[in-house]
């Protein structure tokens, strides 16, 4: 998450310079003028380097809904999204939240696989659900799964297994800054749509390949999307300096291993095999969820001071004088007896009681909430983490909003998740300048939908 914020902050100075028009030289870096602190001066960067469809006078919406002349961080960047399911779509959604134009290419008949991942599905034009949206167990509309990672995208239904479809996709790639795909390695290359093929047409294209292994865990999909999102940001910054695109090879397995952090380090340095700890931390004790009289609460004694404060607030002074719990190393060694003592104490009162007791303690603690409790939490409302969008079929639908808050260039939901092929004609006519009659001919030939 730190890298997410860092990369997007970096784009504030250079986002509008990432996308090079076709008349620019991709092989020669632009001579960027730097200020006294090494920062690139916006005024010193030639206007030629601005995004292909960046509009200097475009007005965006600020944090309070007021007009702002400050462009979104990735405004002027166009993404060609060939990915499906979760890792790739999550990555491109994050880029779309930051202002990039995302063109999602889907199979004309079935679209993204997740459109059928349900129930629940959207009901058409019915927002009477008790959840405050329009979800129900019916295959009449889009799945809730699809909705979660496909906002801020335009859907183009295109069969690029046909010669005409491949030709259109190549033309679209020439008009885009980034391509994201997660097909089986070699499949797109066999169709003449691999990195080596498209770089000949667009040397500045950042071609992002996300690959999955059979044993990669589903929990790594979102972390892979985050890694891919950050990698694309870095590649855009690099291209802004060199004028050259590149191929990003991103594996779910690699991202899964990289996310193991201290678990991997413990094995590589000490040969310690991971164990099943439940909610417990493997190296810090106590730090886990404990049952209360009516629920569960997470408490943490992350260091000796926090452990002392925890014992004082829970009314367990005897633990402080027990040599078995003198240091974290001792507490880890005697995990079972210590956690049993804390658990026995916390079971005596309801969760609300312990929340009040620990309110001013300064140590980590929180209730374990279900989804209803989570989305009703005042902090979720205060930070506007649930936003309502107007779906083209179902009407008002609630979605989880962007996680990072920007003071000057807030991430926004500008487009609801699209229906299959909703923007096919728009993109082909506006981006590729196709005649409407040609679009209808392609539709009749089942190249598009």
From TrEMBL:
<dbReference type="InterPro" id="IPR050483">
    <property type="entry name" value="CoA-transferase_III_domain"/>
</dbReference>
<keyword id="KW-0808">Transferase</keyword>
<dbReference type="GO" id="GO:0005739">
    <property type="term" value="C:mitochondrion"/>
</dbReference>
<dbReference type="Pfam" id="PF02515">
    <property type="entry name" value="CoA_transf_3"/>
</dbReference>
<protein>
    <submittedName>
        <fullName>Uncharacterized protein</fullName>
    </submittedName>
</protein>
<dbReference type="InterPro" id="IPR023606">
    <property type="entry name" value="CoA-Trfase_III_dom_1_sf"/>
</dbReference>
<dbReference type="InterPro" id="IPR044855">
    <property type="entry name" value="CoA-Trfase_III_dom3_sf"/>
</dbReference>
<dbReference type="InterPro" id="IPR003673">
    <property type="entry name" value="CoA-Trfase_fam_III"/>
</dbReference>
<feature type="region of interest" description="Disordered">
    <location>
        <begin position="109"/>
        <end position="133"/>
    </location>
</feature>
<dbReference type="GO" id="GO:0047369">
    <property type="term" value="F:succinate-hydroxymethylglutarate CoA-transferase activity"/>
</dbReference>
<comment type="similarity">
    <text>Belongs to the CoA-transferase III family.</text>
</comment>
């Amino acid at each position: 998450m730190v890298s997410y914020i860092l990369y997007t902050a970096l784009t504030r100075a250079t986002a509008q310079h990432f996308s090079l028009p076709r008349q620019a030289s991709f092989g020669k870096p632009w001579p960027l003028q730097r200020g006294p602190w090494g920062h690139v001066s916006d005024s010193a960067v030639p206007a030629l380097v601005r995004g292909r469809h960046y509009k200097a006078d475009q007005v965006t919406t600020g944090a309070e809904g007021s007009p702002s002349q400050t462009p979104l961080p990735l405004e002027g960047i166009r993404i060609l999204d060939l990915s499906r399911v979760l890792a790739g779509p999550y990555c491109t959604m994050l880029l779309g939240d930051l202002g990039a134009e995302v063109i999602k290419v889907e199979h004309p008949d079935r679209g993204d696989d997740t459109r059928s991942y349900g129930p629940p599905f959207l009901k058409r034009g019915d927002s009477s659900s008790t959840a405050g949206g329009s979800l129900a167990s019916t295959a009449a509309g889009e799945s809730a799964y699809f909705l979660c990672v496909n906002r801020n995208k335009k859907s183009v239904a295109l069969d690029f297994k046909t010669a005409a479809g491949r030709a259109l996709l190549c033309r679209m790639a020439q008009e885009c800054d980034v391509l994201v795909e997660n097909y089986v390695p070699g499949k797109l290359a066999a169709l003449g749509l691999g990195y080596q093929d498209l770089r000949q047409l667009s040397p500045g294209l950042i071609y992002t390949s996300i690959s999955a292994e059979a044993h990669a865990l589903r929990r790594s999909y979102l972390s892979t999307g985050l890694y891919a999102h950050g990698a694309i940001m870095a590649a855009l910054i690099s291209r802004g300096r060199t004028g050259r695109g590149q191929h990003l090879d991103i594996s779910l397995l690699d991202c899964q291993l990289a996310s193991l952090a201290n678990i991997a380090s413990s094995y590589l340095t000490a040969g310690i095999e991971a164990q099943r700890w439940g909610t417990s931390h493997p190296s810090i004790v106590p730090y886990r969820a404990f049952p209360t009289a009516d629920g569960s609460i997470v408490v943490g004694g992350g260091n000796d001071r926090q452990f002392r404060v925890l014992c004082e607030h829970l009314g367990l002074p005897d633990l402080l004088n027990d040599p078995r719990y003198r240091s974290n190393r001792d507490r880890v060694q005697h995990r079972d007896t210590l956690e049993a003592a804390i658990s026995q104490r916390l079971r005596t009162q309801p969760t609300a009681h312990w929340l009040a007791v620990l309110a001013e303690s300064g140590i980590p603690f929180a209730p374990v909430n279900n989804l209803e409790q989570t989305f009703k939490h005042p902090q979720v409302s205060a930070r506007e983490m649930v936003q309502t969008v107007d779906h083209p079929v179902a009407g008002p639908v609630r979605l989880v909003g962007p996680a990072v808050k920007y003071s000057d260039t807030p991430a926004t939901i500008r487009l609801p998740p699209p229906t299959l092929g909703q923007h096919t004609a728009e993109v082909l006519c506006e981006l590729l300048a196709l005649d409407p009659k040609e679009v209808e001919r392609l539709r009749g030939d089942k190249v598009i939908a």
